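notes to self, project folder thing:

trying the whole complex as one job this time. last attempt i did each chain seperately and stitching them together was a nightmare. two parts in total, labels are on each line so i dont mix them up again. if this works i'll redo the older ones the same way
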Amino acid sequence: MTQKSIAKILITGPFNAGKTTLIRYVSDEQTSGKDVQATDTLAQYKSMTTVGLDFGILHVDEELDVHLFGTPGQARFNFMWKILSKGALGTIFLIDSSSQRAIDEAKKMYQFYRELSDMPIIIGATKRDLPDARDLDALALELNIGDTPIIPCDTRKPDDSKLLVLSLLEEIITRATAPSEDEDEFELSLDL
Amino acid sequence: MSDHSSSSAKFEQFGMLRKAIVQKQMGVLSFVSASGKRGIIQIVTGDIIDSKASIDDLSALLSEPVESCTWRESTMKNTEDYQEATHAISQAVSDIHWNTSALLALKLLFSKLPPVRIRMVPIHRYGYKDGISYLLLHHQSLRTENFTLLDFLNETSESKELERRIKVLVLGYCLGLITAIPQQQQEITKNKNSQVGIASRILRRIRGM
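result (full assembly):
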């Protein structure tokens, strides 16, 4: 019996962004970190939150599993972000786009991940249905993310969760295989 | 310095414009449209001269087949204002309206392209308002293995919606956001343990969920 290869994808972002929900929809097996009552000032935003980490396994084929790690969103767990990101294919960064507190936190987190490695990152902007949700442009500007893709999503919808992971995978492939500017030849010169 | 020209009604201008932008060339694209309108687009390191006449010419260039289209490389002093190609083409495409026969011709044109990849970019940042159509295109490309533009265009028969979809294809094609799947990827994918091979396997698995 051959040993399965393991690929790792990181799901990160500040507290209360939808990380646990996303992992649920793209995993065959899920072990959630312990949900406990939020403490400190966070309790006013969310009654229960994840302590430790979320973990999901997606069985790809007989030779490959994907491990999805959801990092705890609270800043006091930032020592784990570095450990978890080691060897990851890429990162999905979720942000509650309706919360200024989350956006402020995301700025620091995003900077942290960017300094950590140049792994592909995509950003999912959640809670777009809430009245305070930021315009995507304003959000991108505030986060100072440059060309990093930012995708509106509702992780409660399985399709949106899958699309985020698909977007990250496409980003990984594109980065690794994109032709240089000089090589771009894609002719569209058909006679009518 | 090189010249490249064509002389029968076709949409060859799209490819020429794309090449000049993606490869950040410098020169002048001169054209005569099928209806006889003449125009020039000056391009400096992939960007487009910033003037109303230039945007009007760009709209004319993209709105119908051309009788002739010539690209002439040249060096120009960068003494004028240039607009990023992303914004200039977004503005030009926004103003275009194609009639039914032009739409069908463009549909045929794009339908003949091989499977493509769509780059995820926030085109509303270029000033293009219909970001939803581009997002739809991107999402559909992610969901479908060997995605072709025919898949995207066949989803609608309603002419206004078809026009919206063709606009994002013209925009995406000219800016190099729609690309052929590189041959090298086919090879790399075969190596199951390469990063691309692994990502491709996961991609297929999630598409099938």
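what i see at first glance: Residues 3-94 of chain B form one domain.
need to look closer tmrw
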